[in-house]
Amino acid sequence: SETASRTDRTIDLAVIPGDGIGPEVVAQGLKVLTAVLPQDVKLETREYDLGAKRWHATGETLTDEELERLKAHNAILLGAVGDPGVPSGVLERGLLLKLRFAFDHFVNLRPSKLFPNVTSPLAGRPEIDFVVVREGTEGPYVGNGGTIRKGTPHEVANEVSVNTAFGVERVVRDAYARAQARPRKKLTLVHKNNVLVHAGHLWKDTFDRVGREFPEVTTDYLHVDAATIFLTTDPARFDVIVTDNLFGDIITDLAAAVSGGIGLAASGNINPTREFPSMFEPVHGSAPDIAGTGKADPTATVLSVALLLRHLGYEDEADRIDAAVTADLTERGAGAARSTDEIGDALAARVSG
Amino acid sequence: SETASRTDRTIDLAVIPGDGIGPEVVAQGLKVLTAVLPQDVKLETREYDLGAKRWHATGETLTDEELERLKAHNAILLGAVGDPGVPSGVLERGLLLKLRFAFDHFVNLRPSKLFPNVTSPLAGRPEIDFVVVREGTEGPYVGNGGTIRKGTPHEVANEVSVNTAFGVERVVRDAYARAQARPRKKLTLVHKNNVLVHAGHLWKDTFDRVGREFPEVTTDYLHVDAATIFLTTDPARFDVIVTDNLFGDIITDLAAAVSGGIGLAASGNINPTREFPSMFEPVHGSAPDIAGTGKADPTATVLSVALLLRHLGYEDEADRIDAAVTADLTERGAGAARSTDEIGDALAARVSG
Ligand SMILES: CC(C)[C@H](C(=O)O)[C@@H](O)C(=O)O
Ligand SMILES: CC(C)[C@H](C(=O)O)[C@@H](O)C(=O)O
Q: Which residue on chain B is closest to A248 by alpha carbon?
């Protein structure tokens, strides 16, 4: 389903380096991307100056013109945006979520894997190799809601989670297809249908109904609270997880933590219909405290480039990046910590080798 | 603030043993309660037959008469309710949440502590000793919302999170007071104010404003996704956490997991105004798979009894239970696993000794 037309052999990529360590890790992602692509594939990139710096300078988060121009690219690579000077919500609503919603990124794909030599906070190094399919365009993220009597003792602030049959079914179907394509063929729905009964009923009902079309896939349901327990005590039980936008936000950070930290967590905001460009980004933020020190680990961005390639149909190239990361982590000794650039160089050398 | 009037020296306790292991752990909780109370305190208990068995037999979850009768008690001790035959949501909405809402249990208190000799899934046994103050009467738990076009491809299911200045302020104030009373005096607000901007603004604004009345308390804010990372990688950073109903549900299960499992996690659904009885229960469920085997660990229920005593003003007795649990876990050898009853006996012996 993700095999794109490769007729023209050009990747027209929008690049949003962003703030803090964003530009540093994106540079390494592009280095590895350039190294892995066959000679006959032309890579065109165009940089977009978006994020905190831009907002401080102009007050703009993303103009309609920029949104329109971004639409024409094959995909978007984003580093990280934000700094402590931007009020909470401004870049989230005005840029990140705006892109996810405008480009209908209904599959937010977040793989978790415990790589060799990576330190997990969990005792005994469990096997961790699962992927979360987080819904990306609905739920409590829609921005529905509001406040009355703001700032008074009678303030009421509401947030509305909106869930549609259309929106739930397409992401559940995508998750089943991904589970079907994996060796273990297991899919877990995570929700809280004992309390959020309306949304929960829609999710569970859709999950059960679509499941009848995938008889080979083993299914399982967990409340989100119980899911956090199993992610900590038995992450090996998970293969593919499908869940709503907010629960997905929460459990993927936890998943990243137990598999060694967000320095390695990649993500794709995917529009599987290809009507709009998909966007790939590391899960980590802009980490202003280490920006410019060369300490940022670009691996999450490089793994996000692999997701990007897979989405565009470059399966072999994506496999080579994944293998390079595994080899790199396996073979690194107890030597000195490597800089952002050195890790990028090492990965680029491996994929072109 | 929790020092009750002890003039009449009677505890009139409602007991809801419930289903599965519920009655087994409640029996031990009552055993320890009886053992710890001074001779001049009269303990009166009345059992309420509520839960899955009752629902299967009568179709009732909680009648208005029962609710009225429960209201007259000093406190409620609940074991666990539910079995796989009850549709999801029936006992939650009809019994557990009904009690929390009817009795205005706006402070859902959930301490987490890594006791001696308890196995944490985290490597290196971090120091864990914090308490979550979870809001209990608002947020996405209010049951607001609904479905249109149910069962059709055009279904829309909404869930509304309702947050009021009144509701947020009283729980935030309670959390500050608890932080103020602890040696570290640190309070962390957990929310997601970069996405849930309406509710997030109310929470953060209230948190900052009330904080000015507690200048000794150090404060901190974390998004809920980031909080799951720190709960796994650095739980020692937490002292008191205040958060909304749903985030509290999620992070307290995670907190229980990292501190050795829900077999030890106690909770109080507290109405600090004492207008209505507060309810104390282990965080774990009815575990039908081990019911009747003597394998259930009653410690979470016994620790919930300590919370109950503290709420009723029996601080010394509560301290003795906490100390007994610590001593019991410290001194238990690598011997054979103990039964539910044996653990209850051991704890009862310690508190009366
Ligand atoms: C920055 C924020 C809007 C975002 C989210 O909540 O989705 C982030 O936490 C993520 O997971 O990508
Ligand atoms: C059973 C359920 C309604 C409840 C909740 O979600 O609050 C439980 O998970 C808890 O944490 O006490």
A: B225
